[in-house]
């Protein structure tokens, strides 16, 4: 089944991150130029139990399209059953997470844990493609570890299951998030003449210059940006400007404060004040990275118990650095 994507020579997408790529953050990234969005990853078992938090993770607005809902799990029956729940939300595609390296996921055989059993991964993927009425895509890693079968050796087999696109993070499961992402195997997959589905690369893209170099060297159809977008939704705009040969636009403190404020208020509306104020603490350091002597403000932001107090600190930041 074909995936309907914008017609650009290299798409820019938001890589799924747990408790980060929620509805409010996706809205920001879309407004700043992300071509493709994917939800936080969601456990298939939780969807089948109608868990409220998991169902909320699937919510999106039509303005966020094209968007995929990413699911993970190790049990074939649970994964197949959750497709009914996912498809009721009417995303543009369903993304299977065969890449998450964290212990609570991979240790149960889900995520990148499935890279220890490539035949089973292929079997489940094919079963999901057959069952789904939407395009199915896969996100994975280079391999389980340096000694394992790598993605260049099983990408064709994944393509043969009928998936509509493949995203590859340039690390093994064993690496977790350490070291540098290696895009060499991503390039090998993309440049395999027998590969005809879109190939997206992911890993360590934190600037427009890196995105330009990844596009030039590896020829990928798209780049997924994860940690580089935290507190920096502008990265999609900057990458597109660089692709088009335009100079980088400077993001001043006033704009950082305004967008952070917008993010916070949208999170409060979506999740409620208590949860939003707590979860936004993951973003503040990134929004104001590089500001001289910012530590007192950062401590104030992560220590505030309420929306009112947080907004007051943001006002102080804007005034102090004006």
Question: If you had to describe this structure to a student in words, what would you say it looks like?
Answer:
It is a single chain. This protein has 15 helices and 9 strands. The chain is an alpha/beta fold and 322 residues long. It has 2 domains: 11-243, Aldolase class I (TIM Barrel, Alpha-Beta Barrel), CATH 3.20.20.70; 253-320, Non-ribosomal Peptide Synthetase Peptidyl Carrier Protein, Chain A (Orthogonal Bundle). Strands 1, 2, 3, 4, 5, 6, 7, 8 and 9 form a 9-stranded parallel beta sheet that branches. α7 (151-160) links the parallel β6 and β7 (165-169). The N and C termini lie far apart (52 Å).
Write the layout of secondary structure elements.
Blueprint: E1 11-14, H1 23-31, E2 37-38, E3 42-43, H2 44-48, H3 52-57, E4 67-72, H4 76-88, E5 93-98, H5 103-106, H6 118-131, E6 136-141, H7 151-160, E7 165-169, H8 184-190, E8 199-202, H9 208-218, E9 222-225, H10 235-243, H11 253-271, H12 273-279, H13 281-287, H14 295-303, H15 307-320
Parallel strand pairs: 1-9, 2-4, 3-4, 4-5, 5-6, 6-7, 7-8, 8-9
